[in-house]
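Table 4 source record.
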Amino acid sequence: MRVGLYPGTFDPVTHGHIDIIRRACSLVDRLVIGVAVNRDKGPLFTLEERVAMIEIEVGLLTQATGCEVVVRPFDNLLTHCANDVGATIIIRGLRAVADFEYEYQMVGMNRALDDTIETVFLMAEAQHQAIASKLVKEIARLGGDVSKFVTPAVKAALLERFSD
């Protein structure tokens, strides 16, 4: 069984993330969505809220793709998380060249920590390349329409969070 790990903060999950998840399902039999605690980023949504949002969004993917999709929080090294879930592949999404430079460094460090884990990069589809969770939050905070970037459930969560 091929197990992949798609890590991220997912604050919030966007159409770009969902696109990568759907496409990663064609590469593995089991995909673990690793939701990073990442206290340094100061997430808008709690870890529990982010996990719940992703679980709602990927609920139908197992039926549609035949790939088992599991959502799991983590707060340790990525290579340790991969080992914990039995993943031999780390899936990373790329939007632009700037993403690649950071990801390139991460691959080198992860390979030095555990050379049995491969990293696979998936380019975001063209219509999703500009989507960044940080920008989606800013648009929502300022009262803009985020419908093009997130699902209706995530949009509702953003509107509720910023109505406070």
